[in-house]
Amino acid sequence: MMRLLTTIMLLALLVFGLWSWVDYDYWLLGPSPAHYTWWWPEEFSTIGQDIDSLFYLIAVMVAVMFVITMGGLVLFTWKYSAKRQDKAVFSHGSHKLELLWTAVPAGLLLIIAFSQMSTFAEIQFASATQDEEGNDLPVHCEIWASQFDWRFRYPGKDGRFGTNDDFESPYELVLPLQENEEGDAKKLVFLLRSRDVLHSFFVPHLRFKRDAVPGMTQRIWLGIDDKQMEEVLATREEKSFDIICAELCGWGHYKMSGRVRVLPQDQYEAWVDEMTAQQFGNS
Amino acid sequence: MANQRTLRTVPGRHLAAAGLLAVAVASCDYDPGHADLPWRLSLNNKAVLADAGLSASEAQVTGALTTLFGTAQNPRHLITGDMYDAEEDPNLAGDLELSDEQLEAIVTDNRVKRFPAQLELIAAGRFSEVPEPLYAQDLWAKWQRDFAPLHTGTPGEEGAPAVFTGADEAFPVDDIWVPGLGDEATWGEAATALFENWYPSLRESAEMYRAQCLHCHGNEGGGDGPTAEFLEPRPRDYRLGKFKWVAVDNGKRPRRDDLVSILKNGAYFTAMPSFDRFSEGQLNGLADYVRLLAMRGETETLLALEMTGSDTGDLPLDTVQTSYADVWEGWRDAEENYVAGEVDVPRWDGMSADEMVRRTEHGRELFMGTTANCFSCHGADGRGAEGATLPISLAEVVEADSLDADYERRGGYRWVERRNAKGEVVKDKADQPLMDLYRIKPDDWGNPSMPRNFTRTIFRGGSRPIDIFRRVKYGIGGTIMPASEASLTDDDLWDIVLYVKHLANSNDLAREYERKAAAAARMHEAEHGHGDHAEDHDAEEASH
Ligand SMILES: [Cu+2]
After folding, report:
1. Interface confidence (ipTM) of the complex
2. FRET label pair with B218: which of A41, A172, A228, B544, CA 20 to 30 Å apart?
3. Which residues 83-122 of chain A have a CB within 8 Å of chain B?
4. Residue B523 forms contact with A (CB below 8 Å)
C-alpha cells in the first residue's frame, strides 16, 4: 500500500513538473495573452534574443535532467520497495557509472558557462556603459528602489544631477527612442540603487533585470529595438509595460510595481518640458 | 525494541498526516477576516472615558458615530440641516436602512464633483456640448475616444446628422459597451453610466481601503494596522485630521487633491508607495474614504471629551450635532485654505552664478540665524535628527514642555496594547523608551520628532522648490515644524529654500558618483598615461 502510494505521488510530481514546464504560464496565469511566447512575453530589447536563447537552452537541459532523475526515482521506489525483503548486497559501485554521472553534468555546466560568457560581458562589464575611449556614457536617469516602490530621478535638461532642474517621476519610467550615428538603438544608462534592502528591478518585456543592493551604485544599461517594439505594441491594448520587484523584499513586496513608457524622441522632449514646468510650477 | 520503532509503528500516524493535510488545505484559503471588522473606539478615547469612570458609556459614543458615519461595511456621511446641498453628490452605498430624508442628505464632498453639468447635457441629448470636467482626465480621454467621435451636431434636432453616422468602427472597445448601437437612448444611458461610474461609492472605496491600506493604516485609520509596528516612520493616524504633505495653511484640513497627490506620488523614504496603478476615480474615492475615517476619528475624540466634561455622563443629541458640525467645518473650508499660486517660483536655472552664490549665502545666514532658527532643529549640517549630534532645540523642547499630563490627555501619546512579564495585556505608551532615550518631544501622533535630513536628496512631501517653500512658509501640521515668522519675506524664504536645495544637491549621490568616477579617471591617467582606457577599466572592475 505504502509502496503504491509513494510511487503514485512521485509519478504525479513528475507529470506535474513536466506539465508546468510545458504549459508554464497557463496554470499560473491562465491563457497567455497574445503577446506571450512560450514562457515569456514578447520582448523588444536589443539583447533580449540572447537572453531568451540562454534561458531556453537551460530550461531544456533542466527538463531533460528532471525527467531522467525523477523517472529513476519513480522506478527505483517501485522496484526496490521494502516489501521485497531482499538481502542486502555489498558493492563497490561502478567506476564507469560514476565517471559518467560526473562527466555529463560537468559537460553540461561547461556548455552553459561558455554559451553565456559573451552575453554576460555585454550586459555586465563596465565597458558596457562606456564609450570607445573608456569614458562613462551619460546617465539617463537614476532608479531608486525602496520598500515598496520605484522612483526615477531625472537629471533634467542640463543632463547633470545635483542641480535644481532635476525632477522625479514616481512609478513611471519614461524612455526615449534614440538612435546613434550608425542607426542602432542608443544605450540608455541608469544608476540603480536601493534605499533599504535588496530589491530587483525587473522589466519582463525588456528582459531587463538587476538586483538593487543597498550601499551600491550600479550602472546598468538598456537598448530598445524600436521595430520590435512596434510589433509588440500592435498585439496589446496596454501601451505601457510593467516594472516589478523580483526580489522578495518584505511584506509589501507585492505592491512594488511601476510602468515603463517609451516615447519617440520629440514626444520624450515634450514630456521633459512638461516635467520641468511642473518642477518649477506652483500648483 | 524501542530502537526499532519506525514510522509504521507510530500510533495515530494516519491521523497526524490527515491533520497536517487539512491544515495545509485550509491555509490555502486564508482569509484575514478584514471584511467584517467593525470600527472600534481608539485606545486613547477609551482611556479618557475610563479615567472619568465612564467606560460603561462607550456604547453611547459608538452609537452616535454609527448614526453619523454608518459602519465599516456601509460607510456614509450623515448631513443635517443646512449642511445639505442638493447640488452635491449622493455617494450612496446602496441598501442602507435609513429614512428618505437621511438618504437624501448624504453627501461626501465639499465641492461639486459628480459632473452635474455633463450629466444634464447628456440627459438632454446635447452630447456635443458636454464640457471637459475640471478633473478626471482619464474619464475625459475615454469620453473623447469612445463617445465624442460618434456624433456631429445636436442629435434629435430636425435635419441634424444621426448620432452614429459613419463612426461604427470607432465604437467603444473595452469596458464601455452599448447594446444595439443604433438607439440614442441606450447610448445616452452608457454615456451617463460612464460619468456616474467614474467615482466608486464609499462602500467600494472602503473595500479597496481594506485591501490596500488597512494593513498599515488600520481599520479605523489609526495608523495601527498589523504591519504598522515594523515601520519607521509610522503610518499616519488619520484620526487627528492632520496631514503633513498638503498645500493648505498650517494645521488646516487637507483638500482631497492633497490626499490624492500623496496616493499618486507616494511619500518617499517612508513605506507609503505610489498607487499610480489605480485609476484617478479610484484614488479620489480612496481619498474620500480616508477623509471619512479622519472625520470619524475627530468626532470620536470630541464626543469622548464632551462626555467626560458633562456631569451626567450622557451624550445629548445636540452635543453630537455641534461636535459633528465643528468637524465638518474644517473639511468644508479645505478648498478655501488652498495656497496654490500664492507665489511665483523663481527660475533659478536662469540665474547668474554670482546671484546664485549671493542668494544661497543669504539663505545660509537665515538658516543659521535666530529668526528662522532652522539650524536649531535641522542642525548646522542640515542632517537633522540623523546628524552626528542631537540638534540643540530638541533637548530644550523637552525641558520646557516636558511631556505633561495635559499633553497625555490631549491624546499626544499613542497607546498600544502589550503583554507584560506575567503575560497580561496592558496598555502602554508606544515609543516611550525611544523618546526618553533621545529626549525628543513627540509630535501630535505620539511619534518622536525627527527633523528632516536635507542631505537625502529626495524629500518626502515632494522635492520641487514649491513643495519645500510651503513647508517653510506654512509649517508642517502636527509637528514641531512651525510656520515661518512674519518678519521673513517671501524672498527670504525662497533663499532658505535655495540653501536647503543646495544642501540636498551638494550631497546628491548621483553627483558624488560622477565625481568619484572623474577622480578615478584622473588617477588612472596619472598612473598609466594616455593609454587605452577601456580595457584597463574592465580589468579594474573584474578585480573588485
Ligand atoms: Cu522590492
Report:
1. 0.81
2. A172
3. none
4. no
pLDDT for the residue B536: 43
Which B-chain residues 79-138 have CB contacts (< 8 A) with chain A? none
Rounded mean pLDDT, A237-253: 88
Contact B146, B190 (CB under 8 A): no
Q: Domain residue spans in chain B?
A: 116-196, 202-337, 348-506, 509-543
- By C-alpha distance, the chain B residue nearest A219 is B513
Q: What is the mean pLDDT of residues A133-141?
A: 86
CATH number of the structural domain B202-337: 1.10.760
DSSP state of B510: H
Among the residue ranges B46-50, B398-402, B465-469, B486-490, the one predicted with the least confidence is B398-402
Tell me the backbone φ, ψ of residue B394, rounded to 5 degrees. -65, -45
Contact B242, B477 (CB under 8 A): yes
Percent of chain A with pLDDT over 70: 92
C-alpha grid cell, residue A274:
512638461
Q: Hey, what long-range contacts does B344-350 have (CB within 8 A, 24 or more apart)?
A: B344/A282, B345/A280, B345/A281, B345/A282, B345/B465, B345/B466, B345/B469, B346/B465, B346/B494, B347/A280, B348/A164, B348/B465, B348/B498, B349/A157, B349/A158, B349/A163, B349/A164, B349/A165, B349/A280
State the pLDDT confidence band at B196, using cuts at 50, 70 and 90: confident
For residue B349, which residues of chain A lie inside 8 Å, CB to CB? 157-158, 163-165, 280
**pLDDT score, position A246:** 93
Q: Which residues in chain A (161-180) have CB-CB distances under 8 A to chain B?
A: 161-168, 170-172
Whether chain B has a CB inside 8 Å of the CB on A193: the answer is yes
Interface contact A126, partner B, CB < 8 A: yes
Q: Which three cell numbers stand for residue A187?
A: 544605450
Query: Does the beta-carbon distance from B506 to A162 stay under 8 Å?
Result: yes
Pairwise CA distance, residues B114 & B136, whole Å: 11
Topology at the third CATH level for domain A134-280: Immunoglobulin-like (2.60.40)
| H or E stretch covering A177 | strand A172-177
A217 to chain B, any CB pair closer than 8 A? The answer is: yes
The CATH classification number of B348-506 equals: 1.10.760
CA-angle at B239, arms to B236 and B243, nearest 5°: 50
Domain locations in chain A as residue ranges: 2-22+38-79+96-124, 134-280
Q: What is the pTM of this model?
A: 0.76
| B532 close contact with A: CB closer than 8 A | yes
Residues 464 through 493 of chain B touching chain A, CB cutoff 8 Å: 464-466
pLDDT digits (tens, 9 = 90+) for B26-60: 666 555 667 788 899 988 888 888 888 888 888 88
- For residue B454, give the amino acid letter: F
pLDDT digits (tens, 9 = 90+) for B21-31: 777 766 665 55
Backbone angles phi, psi at B358, to 5 degrees: -60, -45
Number of H helices, E strands in chain A: 6, 10
Tell whether A283 lies on the interface with B, counting CB pairs under 8 A: yes
DSSP-derived secondary structure letter, B147: I
Q: What per-residue confidence (pLDDT) applies to B522?
A: 79
Closest CA in chain B for residue A169 = B265
CB of A281 within 8 Å of any CB in chain B?
A: yes
CB A258 within 8 A of CB A171: yes
From A38-52, A166-180, B192-206, B386-400, the region with the lowest mean pLDDT: B386-400
DSSP character string of A8-31: HHHHHHHHHHHHHHHTHHHHHHSS
